[in-house]
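=== RUN LOG ===
request id: a7f3
mode: sequence -> structure
chains: 1
length: 499
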Amino acid sequence: MKEIHHWVDGKEYKGTSGRFSDVYNPATGEVQAKVSLATKAELDAAVESAARAQVKWGATNPQRRARVMMEFVRLINRDMDKLAEALSSEHGKTFPDAKGDVQRGLEVIEFCIGAPHLLKGEYTDNAGTGIDMYSMRQPLGVVAGITPFNFPAMIPLWKMGPALAAGNAMILKPSERDPSVPLMLAQLLQEAGLPDGVLQVINGDKDSVDAILDSEIIQAVGFVGSTPIAQYIYERAAATGKRAQCFGGAKNHMIIMPDADMDQAADALVGAGFGAAGERCMAISVAVPVGEKTADALIEKLIPRIEKLKVGPYTAGDDVDYGPVVTKAAKENILRLVQTGIDQGAELVVDGRDFSLQGYEEGFFVGPHLFDRVTPDMDIYKTEIFGPVLSTVRAGSYEEAIKLAMDHEYGNGTAIFTRDGDAARDFASRINIGMVGVNVPIPVPLAYHTFGGWKKSGFGDLNQHGPDAFRFYTRTKTVTARWPSGIKEGGEFNFKAMD
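=== RESULT ===
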């Protein structure tokens, strides 16, 4: 059985805990590897080593750090297929989707090549007589990233890129469900020139998370995962004086106005709702057609599209629409929630409960589901299902539709499909949600903007990637300097002997 270990001080570290977690092939249901889980002592030792390495790395000028990022970009592009293959085998994503996972992380590393500009401070000449004032952005020291299973390349890259480019050392604790890609990225960073110890990859469970939160050396924690854990990490990090940036769950609504192009809206919903088996924090899980006529037309367009979806393993070719969910427990929870929706009165118009794939009966595949006439009191509306389940909530008016999205406890992403610029502008202005799409179903910002949700989808005041990331991973120091007035008289034209 293959064993997956840690990356400490520039080399593989096997660990001594004797504790392991199973890594599955989601398509077959088989255990394909075991990943070592660190002890608190092992994590603490990695943190102490990172702190020593950070001193020199933090003193390295930003342009030289940016050159490491530049070479890292080249190496990721070189190994793109290899990374995607490892990602698909552990997560279950289709191969094109896995490459997209890597690519969206790569774009943040490309942005980090501009770190020298982003780390510039401010300067005021002659703020008072003979007084100059200037500010500097300096690294925090050692920071930590705790990343989820659903984007095992993208989210670690979102965390490590800005943190390292800003001069910090990072402790990365990836998901134990699909740990191989973060380790491969660490190896590529070493090849790119990152000094040993500046990035430590520690595999672990809650014990490792708590050790990160309790560490007196770690100055900041970035997390992506479920809302209860995001809130737990945020509160505990704050209690120990750490800066925290924690992103949680989502229930993303897409409003379809009567004037929308129904074919465009239906295509967008299918891709945004069922891509990656719905295991995306930006997936559209709630369709909100405005008016009964709009709703009937939308359902009529959706049913054949959803029924034609091709579900299978990534090895079946690039025409597979989505693969399995990540674990058996995830599959069982999705099917439990589907049954809850039926029991509570929602109309299941596409039923994927009996889906089975010949030759992969033990895999974690879930067929696509479409609910109609869902109401806000139902569990399938309130809960983040994180699976291939799309719920339709019919709204009588635009105001009713926007109220649904605004009243929900989550506020990660949302979208409106319309030809009416006035409605789109009003929606974008009023909605209390962090990322908004206008005729764009999954409005994930590009790397030079920031990514972050509102309400219970995000805890902390600074977002991921873009300028906010460099603000998060640095602290500002302001210097006020006064020099003696008067210009030194005369000049010396001969070399003086050394004193």
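=== NOTES ===
The chain is about 40% helix and 20% strand.
The longest strand covers residues 131-139.
=== END ===
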